[in-house]
Amino acid sequence: MAVSHAVVSPFDLTPIRALYPFRTARLPLERGTLSYVDEGTGGPPALLVHGNPTWSFYFRHLIAGLAPQRRVVVPDHMGCGLSDKPQDYPYTLATHITNLERLVDHLELPQVDLVVHDWGGAIGMGWAVRHPERVRRIVVLNTSAFLSPRIPWRIAISRYPVFGDVAVRGLNAFAVAATHMAVVRPLAPAVRQGYLLPYDSWANRVAIQRFVRDIPMHPRHPTWALVDAIDRELPTLRTKPMLILWGGQDWCFSDHFLAGWMQRFPAAEVVRFDHAAHYILEDAHEDVVPRVVRFFASR
Predict the structure, then answer these.
(1) What Gene Ontology cellular component terms go with this record (predicted)?
(2) What whole-number distance in Å separates Cα of residue 175 and Cα of residue 207?
(3) What DSSP designation does 246 have?
(4) With pLDDT > 70 as the criterion, what percentage of the chain qualifies?
(5) How far apart are CA 211 and CA 40, in angstroms?
(6) Is the dihedral of CA 121, 126, 127, 130 positive or negative?
(7) Which CATH class is domain 5-297?
(8) Span 5-20, mean pLDDT?
(9) Per-residue b/e over 30-47, b at no fewer than 16 CB within 10 Å?
(10) What is the DSSP letter of 194?
(11) Cα(40)–Cα(51) distance, rounded to whole angstroms?
(12) Phi, psi of 113 (to 5 degrees)
């Protein structure tokens, strides 16, 4: 079994440390190490899965709300947050699912309450359909785990060769834009800094670019078949209690995706926040966090 070690965060001396006061550990993988938050005790543990271009920092309010009652595990995907950022690495959905599986197995988590957001929907649900017996409850936050022909032009242009390289990796335009376009309520400067700190160079933005390129828009794309397979297996999770909390002003994961979740999980509890956008845990955390805490406390 791989050994994880508690480490001192490289952000300890930055202004965001007060916003992100969590214990982190590292899991060695074949090509680099995966960083993850591991806070609280008790169970069943909560497993929080982020997307692109965020990292575990996105879940800071939810970690603080859940940790007094239970263990909370929040990985940074390879290339994201405090995890290593190797340049020659398969930054694909399949690899991220496998890494999540490795972490859950390493920590010997028998059953989890799952929270997914953005690319974390496909990653988290990709793991969950492999292990439905290890999932107790699910919270869905503005995400998808099924194919869609819709892609906003602001995302699509980031996939273009040369232009996408310069914009995403050279100018950090994808992550910077998200700190403005993914919220309704403007972020405080320290919060914006928290989102951007891990992505401070061309090399450190490699996963942001690869995530965008991994969006499957046609059947020839290597990730298309995997997303389709995850979608076909979602009914294995239909008996799990699900809470869908949706930012209604999300221009990326719009109400089209909300309708997709409701079609697949008709028994899910749904709350749509009219005045929240994609980063719902920024715009509406005062309401969202207590709802998740209560939902996970239910029997």
Answers:
(1) membrane
(2) 11
(3) E
(4) 91
(5) 30
(6) positive
(7) alpha beta
(8) 68
(9) eebbbbbbbbbeeebbbb
(10) H
(11) 23
(12) -95, 125
Distance CA 5, CA 138 (A): 28
Q: Which two tokens stand for residue 283?
A: 């715009």
pLDDT digits (tens, 9 = 90+) for 88-145: 999 999 999 999 999 999 999 999 999 999 999 999 999 999 999 999 999 999 999 9
Closest C-alpha among 266, 287, 268, 265 to residue 276: 287
Q: Tokens 């509890």 sit at which residue?
A: 269
Q: Which amino acid is at 240?
A: K
Instruction: Give the residue carrying structure tokens 């492999």.
Output: 130
> Per DSSP, what are the bridge partners of residue 141?
117, 245
Coil, helix or strand at residue 45? coil
Q: For the chain, give every domain's residue range.
A: 5-297
Q: How far apart are the first and last CA of the chain?
A: 33
CB 247 within 8 A of CB 118: no
CA pair distance 76, 84, nearest whole angstrom: 9
Please report which helix (H) or strand (E) contains residue 247, including its range: strand 242-247
Could you give phi then psi for residue 129, rounded to 5 degrees?
A: -70, -20
Tell me the pairing of strands 32-39 and 46-49: unpaired
As beta bridge partners, residue 116 has: 49, 140
* Joined tokens for residue 30: 């074949």
At 106 the three-state DSSP class reads: helix
- For residue range 157-197, what is the model confidence (pLDDT) as tens digits? 666 675 667 888 888 898 999 999 999 999 999 999 999 99
Asked whether 42 and 1 are in contact (CB, 8 A), the reply is no
Nearest to 66 by CA among 102, 99, 93, 42: 42
Kindly tell me if the per-residue pLDDT of 43 is higher than 60. Answer: yes
CA 76/CA 90 separation, integer angstroms = 16
HEC letters along 112-176: EEEEEEECHHHHHHHHHHHCHHHEEEEEEEEECCCCCCCCCHHHHHHHCCCHHHHHHHHCCHHHH
